Amino acid sequence: MSENPNQAARPRPYRLAELGLLILAIAVATSAYALVGLGVEDTIPANVYQYAAWLAALGLIIHVVVWWKAKYADPVLVPIAVLLNGLGLAMIYRVDLGRDEYQNSGVSQLIWMTLGVALAVGIIIFLGDHRWLRRYTFVSGFAALIFLLLPLIPGLGRTVNGARIWIGVGSMSFQPGEIAKILLAIFFAGYLVSYRDQLVLAGPKILGIRFPRLRDFGPIVIAWVASVGILVFEKDLGTSLLFFGLFVAMLYVATSKVSWIILGLGFFAAGAVAATFLFSHVQQRVSGWLNALTAEEYNKSPGGSYQLVQGLFGMSNGGLTGTGLGEGRPNMVPYAESDFIYASLGEELGMAGLFVILLCYLFIFQRGIKTAQQLRDGFGTLLATGLSFTIALQVFVVVGGVTRLIPLTGLTTPFLAQGGSSLIANWMIIALLLRISDNARRPVEEFHTGVLKITEDPDERTASAREAGNHNDTKRGVEGSDEAPTTNLGAADLDSTGPDEAPTTNLGTTGGER
Amino acid sequence: MKKSLTHISVVGFVMFALLFGSTSWVQFVTADSLNNNPLNNRRILDQLARDRGPILVDGEKIAYSEPVDDKYKYQRKYGSEGLNPRAYASMTGYYSIVSGASGLERATGDYLSGDSDALFYDKVGSLFTGEQPRGAAVELTIDPEVQQAAWDGLGNQNGAAVAIDPKTGKVLAMASTPGWDPNPIASHDAGEAQAAFEKLNNAEDNPAYNRAIGGNLYPPGSTFKVLVAAAALESGDYQPDSTLNGPAELDLPQTTSTISNSHPGACRNGGNPSLADSLAESCNTSFASLGMDLGEDAIQEQAQKFGFGQEMEIPLKVSPSSFPEDLNPPQLAQSSLGQYEVRSTPMQMAMMTAGIANGGKMMKPQLVDRVLNANTLEPIKENRPQEKSRPVSGKTADQLTTMMEGVVEDGTASVAKMDGTKVAAKTGTAQHGPGAAPHAWFISFAPADDPKVAVAVVVENGGNAGNEAYGATVAGPIAKNMMEAVVEK
Predict the structure, then answer these.
(1) Residue ranges under compositional bias (Basic and acidic residues) (chain A) (predicted)?
(2) Residues A412 and A289 grouped into a single domain
(3) Minimal CA separation from B194 to chain A, in Å
(4) Same domain flag for A315 and A220
(5) Last residue of a domain, one of A395, A422, A441
């Protein structure tokens, strides 16, 4: 096949493009850091070269590893992650300089970034194929549940800003929900790819829409109970919305049934409304949102709209072009370096700067969905969808909260906000998306894994092939791919993919779960 | 899954579209109302911390910001070598961390702080350099020598003096006494600033009033006769040599009271003075009867043509001067002498004088000459001379000029005579309540044949002369010194 001159344009790795964008991202991030020093202290930070070198080293390491292990991975993900992470670092440093007491939080965030990049590198090196994760479907689900429940354990859980979504050991604190969202995405992807046929089965027709059978409601009810539980016990609408939204989105992609969306949104709305009536902390948040600009809410403490409104004032002060880095007053907003870093950036970089940031997130989302569309296996499609949608949804919930589109919640802004758990989790998501996109864009003849052997007996063979580390089969598999018996593999996952399509579509897990 | 993926993709795009929308909503659509929200303390702090532009007089800084090492970053200072901050406080106002801003600090605040849209291109530039946009410099039209003459002349007396270039409307001097020092109010020590602010506002003589353009306003007294004469000439029924009725005492209809002249006896020409003579010797009885003959409407109309009843921004707000309405004949008679309820700012009287000096073309008074880039001193905005109105015809203006020259040559304003320069003027000594010393007024312009400066001076309650005060003796020398500062340049 590789000799076939009629082969349609071969996918290109675009690694040099990634390198170029990466250098640009590092340059922007370093300039931002230098400008913060200039703005606040009228002098470029003394360690700007070390900072640039550190950032460049991290970027280049992940770049080289991607080149080595995931050559066909999407080229914009790493530069965007580095850019966002770098802007976040600059703003965290800036807010730190604005404090009466310098806390060196920029450095600790840089250490977290290093850890995050290290984890991402580890994932790219050691996770040869994203489909291996499928075998841990239920382990992931169980682990996610544990992570979600951790903050509720007395003595371990911590309440920050009203929301009990933190755990703390000594001076270290962690938001387990950040890791849980990745585990949940893996669990949902694995679960849905296996059971979606049942979920698709038709049930009663109400108002012209066919609803699922009552007995298939189990999973959505569990997801709903879990998210309402989070809302009630952990007091965080954002986390609740994030997990439930993730579930509904993946459910819809898996089943293509609008009825699930209607049911899901209906359930969630009912739960949220009920919670608003029943629990005072939810009421407070809603009232602080609706009546934010009244003096009464503004001056109410605790639980008023002071933080939200100060954030709005900061953003309006920034206007279209911002005050310039180091020239605004982001420190007037509580949690300017974490929950409200979007407002801090808005004040100093203006609407123009925020648009760039939003576009970066939109890029991640769009590349993730594109990857999902290119993929040949159902699990990967769902996982890519879930991971990219969780970033989009999280951005929506946080930024929507800060800009008063929806009630404020305690979620972090991906890559920007100060906080180790969030940063690590998001670098892991990037690593997974890199791995999946490599798989999606890689030409058939370049597969080195034994994955092709799943042609005969998917689940067991995948496992055994990996255990054996047997790459000798690859060649045989590739050669065999021109032949009929393999062509129908994976096809069942993709609506438009029929057995008569080009043999390049035949890789990936089988749809033959039944 | 392809189709549902597309749908999820659309959902994601919609979410981002909403975020783009909400971000624009906060930072663009409602940004102004958020910035001006009463709960917003950030705007004030932000402006305080900015490198605010200076206010310049003839290239020298009368107000400027100096970098300091505290949280406000810049200390506002007033006055410099040769420019006494007390003499300029009525223009500059203050800029305070506790009391906000007043005067030009407020009226031209958008320029000084750099917020004005006129500074847009500067702001775009600073977007790339990452620098905070610097405020622009505001250069005043004030001539420091004329201002000094006004300030020195008023001295320890309460009052105000205004000088205008009749051809351009540029305000050459605007003094209000007692003066005050804005520096303590601009202190970064909140307690000190607050104390200074309260001291200014509770002081006995109300120094915070800008007497030139606001405060309680003054009855203009006999200087108003110029306006009545203008109404008479404009009516077409009178000429400067028209004979008026000027007895020693004029009985007022409907009452037992009378109007008499300030000097005993009948006016010139045996009680039948001409209009010009009436103005020259400031005959009360002839102007009272002239006013009653012209009628309330004619005088009211003429007053409005000269700017009475109108708010004006130069860009400081000028209180509207007023001519009363619904007058009975005795009230009209008194009003024709600039008494009763006629109230005027010195700025209004200076503007009227300048209008006559400029051949009936009254220019809009302007205190700000140019707005400059504070670094390069390149002009960003230049105020061109603007015609405000034509209150009298050219002919009437010429006749009034000749008549006012007569006041100096052969009348009450001889104090303003200058060697080699023709001067036109009118005095005023305004009674305002029983027992109170009169306000001394003087309006004038010079040279009468090629006017370069028009002046109005008022000294409250006769100043140091008290009950002995006359417009000519108390206010006249001040006006003369101010005119000389221009003419003898």
Answers:
(1) 458-479
(2) yes
(3) 24
(4) yes
(5) A441
The amino acid that residue A312 corresponds to is L
Query: Closest Cα of chain B to A35: distance in Å?
Result: 7
DSSP character for B373?
Answer: -
Q: How confident is the model at residue B132 (pLDDT cuts 50, 70, 90)?
A: low
In a domain, A283, yes or no: yes
What amino acid occupies position A116? G
Number of domains in chain A: 2
What is d(CA A111, CA B483) in angstroms, rounded to the nearest whole number? 74
CB atoms A346 and B23 under 8 Å: yes
Nearest CA in chain B to A378: B1
3-state secondary structure of A193: helix
Among A320, A325, A355, the residue with its CB nearest the CB of B130 is A325
**B28, B38, B46 ranked by CB distance to A320: nearest:** B28
Question: Cα–Cα–Cα angle for B120, B122, B127, nearest 5°?
Answer: 95
Same-domain status, A248 and A275: yes
Does A232 map to a domain?
yes
pLDDT at A282: 74
**Same domain, yes or no, for A144 and A226?**
yes
Q: What is the DSSP string of B291-306?
A: HHHH-HHHHHHHHHHT
Closest CA to A409 of A259, A214, A275: A275
Chain B residues whose CB is inside 8 A of the A38 CB are 130
Q: Which domain holds residue A480?
A: 445-506
CATH of domain B221-369+385-487: 3.40.710.10
List, for residues B234-264, the tens digit of each pLDDT value: 999 999 999 999 888 888 888 888 888 888 8
Q: Among this protein's residues, is B222 annotated catalytic?
A: yes
Chain B residues lying within 8 Å of A495, measured CB to CB:
1-3
- Choose one of A398, A421, A441: the last residue of a domain: A441
User: Which residue in the set A313, A381, A399 is minimally distant from B42, CB to CB?
Assistant: A313
Domain annotation covers residue A2: no
Contact with chain A for residue B24, Cβ under 8 A: yes
What is the value of pTM for the model shown? 0.58
| Span B300-358, pLDDT tens digits | 999 999 999 999 999 999 999 999 999 999 999 999 999 989 999 999 999 999 999 99
In this structure, are A380 and A266 located in the same domain?
A: yes
The catalytic position among B102, B113, B116, B222 is: B222
